[in-house]
């Protein structure tokens, strides 16, 4: 039986939001997933998400994602390391995944998965990023986000929406490293996927054919993820450099008077 404790509000750091969105936009064919790290105020039942862990998918599906116990353990170890580094009680407190081309609302499977996590931690929370939703009127893609928990019912758990607040914060090094590591994770997924598929194939032509598809997939990641990511980070670097120079001039104007 899950405790009747529910979150009142979730505060999501803006750099974590950027990392999750970047991850969600890497593919419009399968769902992606990750875990959320931060602190929970047990007095106010408010969750403060300050970091995320991008998970390696062993099985790519267009309509579902699963988190293995090994991945949960790895994320917990990452949270412990971050807690020691920051000297704060940081732990795994939620999960996120994407809904490409479909509504932002959690499915029955999502709600049941969330309910399972809440059996271990009543204040565990879920985020869903709906991406690649076409707005025909404005000819643009929409991005939506929902924050939810599961509430107990007699027949089956139901969705319970939680207020979400995005806190404007500068990029922290550990979240920037997570974004920079994203292409490596995606490439490793492709390598592992083709390695499993090709393990029992003895035909050289078939192996060559599959290797070609793996190469195409990796090139696609480089062109659609790595290159735009590098350009975005370079633009951020230039903007920060301009900001630093402006602040230096402002400091000089104050000291000269």
Automatic annotation (TrEMBL):
It comes from Acanthoscelides obtectus (Bean weevil). Keywords: Hydrolase, Metal-binding, Metalloprotease, Protease, Ubl conjugation pathway, Zinc. Belongs to the peptidase M67A family. BRCC36 subfamily. Residues 10-154 form the MPN domain. One of its GO terms (molecular function) is cysteine-type deubiquitinase activity. It comes from the Eukaryota. InterPro entries: BRCC36_C, JAMM/MPN+_dom, JAMM_MPN+_peptidase_M67A, MPN, MPN_BRCC36. This is MPN domain-containing protein.
């Amino acid at each position: 039986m899950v405790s009747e404790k529910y979150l009142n509000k979730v505060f999501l750091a803006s750099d974590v939001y950027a990392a999750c969105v970047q991850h969600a936009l890497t593919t419009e064919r399968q769902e992606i997933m990750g875990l959320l790290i931060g602190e929970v105020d047990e007095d106010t039942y408010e969750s403060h998400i300050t970091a995320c862990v991008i998970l390696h998918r062993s099985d790519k599906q267009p309509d579902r994602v699963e988190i293995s116990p090994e991945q949960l353990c790895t994320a917990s170890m990452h949270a412990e390391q971050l807690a020691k580094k920051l000297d704060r009680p940081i732990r795994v407190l939620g999960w996120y995944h994407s809904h490409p081309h479909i509504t932002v609302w959690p499915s029955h499977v999502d709600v049941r998965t969330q309910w399972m996590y809440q059996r271990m931690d009543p204040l565990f929370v879920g985020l869903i990023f709906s991406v690649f939703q076409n707005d025909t009127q404005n000819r643009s893609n929409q991005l939506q986000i929902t924050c939810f928990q599961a509430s107990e019912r007699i027949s089956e758990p139901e969705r319970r929406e939680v207020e979400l607040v995005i806190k404007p914060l500068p990029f922290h090094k550990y979240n920037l490293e997570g974004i920079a590591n994203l292409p490596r994770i995606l490439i490793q997924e492709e390598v592992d996927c083709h390695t499993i598929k090709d393990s029992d194939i003895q035909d050289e032509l078939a192996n060559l054919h599959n290797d070609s598809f793996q190469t195409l997939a990796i090139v696609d990641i480089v062109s659609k993820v790595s290159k735009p990511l590098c350009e975005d980070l370079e633009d951020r670097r230039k903007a920060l450099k301009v900001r630093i120079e402006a602040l230096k001039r402002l400091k000089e104007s104050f000291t000269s008077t």
